[in-house]
Amino acid sequence: MVFSSVTFLLFFLPCLLAVYFIVPSRFRKARNYILLAFSLVFYAFGGVKFTALLLLSIAINYISGLLAAEGNGQRVRKAGVALAVILGLALLGWFKYAGFFAEIINQVGVPIPVPHITLPIGISFFTFQGLSYVIDVYRGDADCQRNPLYLALYIALFPQLVAGPIVRYTTVEHEITERRENIEDFSAGTVRFMIGFAKKMVLANPMGEIADAVFGQNTPDLTTGAAWIAAIAYTFQIYFDFSSYSDMAIGLGRMFGFHFLENFNYPYIADSITDFWRRWHISLSTWFRDYVYFPLGGSYCSRAKNIRNLSIVWILTGMWHGAAWNFIFWGLWYLFFLLMEKFVWTSPLQRSPAAFKHIYTMLIVIAGWVFFRSPTLGYAGKMLLSMIGFGSGAGGGEAVYYLLEYWPEWIMCLIAIFPVKVLIENALKKCISTGSAAANQLMLWGPKIYALCVFAVSYLKLVTGSFNPFIYFQF
Question: Domain locations in the chain?
């Protein structure tokens, strides 16, 4: 089940809201158990057999958390962390990487069977959430959760279960038992959900149609114009697709009293690759920073060890996204430019004009998305060659067709990557500070009216269309 589906909007969510809020707020346990039950049903829509895997992951992390808790001996606590890491990564490794490594072994001349395994939805997300819980308990940053159903609620909570953001236990630890739902949070969460839904239906899906149509062609047949159109369309698609899901997840969480951290901060206005990764998929980059990079020594070590630490993080980042060479290369692609910015061209880049820094960053990001989207490294290489003029020609009616056919979406995408909302809010706040009643009413009602309008348009697109994938479900 996806948020942008009729089943979710007309059946699952209304039923959950009715059952959840009919229970008085003083019965917090009952509300939590209702939310857990619906979350498990939500996940079961993606494959009932994989619900057992989710429950197994929860059980592993629950037992590991008990062992890692303060009050046990140091050996027992370390054993708890080791248990969570070994078993959690073993499950992730089998379902996500067994086939990939089996193919590599076959390619080097050792014939072994290649398993064909269906990847459980969201396994990378709930595995990392469980690991962060156990590690935080061991470090003393979080209290051990003695109620297994509450830990299950944290890991299986439906808004962020299948495509993030990766929510730390420390973020929601107290809200599991002490949150207080209110009209203000529910209203703000609803507005956030509706705007995220609109980003998905109005921006991400049309860009996805363009990207899929062009990437599905044989690369030697692509003109330079068509290759660029596809690359830029996918650049828009993956941002609006993933950020819209994060918006909807954050909005849904807030409707039920949970306050998840932001996962995106206008990454396409970044002025360096370092800045880009401070703004893109924040929950993943900070997870690797806190649980891999810092424990390895971070940057407080020799240059050689710092490069080693960064290399480990970015190889793992690439592999986290998928078991394929193009994902690994995508991680190495960013590793190279991050190392260059850190050790080679730091000063020249800082002194460069703002326009140059932005163009430099976006060219690297767009090329990176070509590696990410392409089925193979060879395909990505040919695609990039087409983009620099080694395709079937520089022009092409196909590029013009997609520009003209989707011109409203292109314009909206270009506007939406900039912090227009922040600029409008800041302007209204200045007016409010001078006593403007109109600005105050616009600040209060503007987002709600806007959200209702774009939601209505998006719902019409949902019921009349069929192209509606979510990119990050595969991770």
Answer: 6-180, 186-420
- Identified catalytic residue from 116, 174, 259, 321: 321
* CA–CA dist 113, 200 (Å, integer): 40
pTM: 0.92
Establish whether 259 is a catalytic residue. no
Phi-psi region of 163 (alpha: psi -120 to 50; beta: other; left: phi over 0): alpha
Say how many Å lie between the first and final Cα of the chain, rounded.
Answer: 15
pLDDT digits (tens, 9 = 90+) for 309-354: 999 999 999 999 988 999 999 999 999 999 999 999 888 988 899 9
pLDDT at 394 over 60: no
Question: Which of 143, 126, 39 shows the shortest CA–CA distance to 84?
Answer: 126
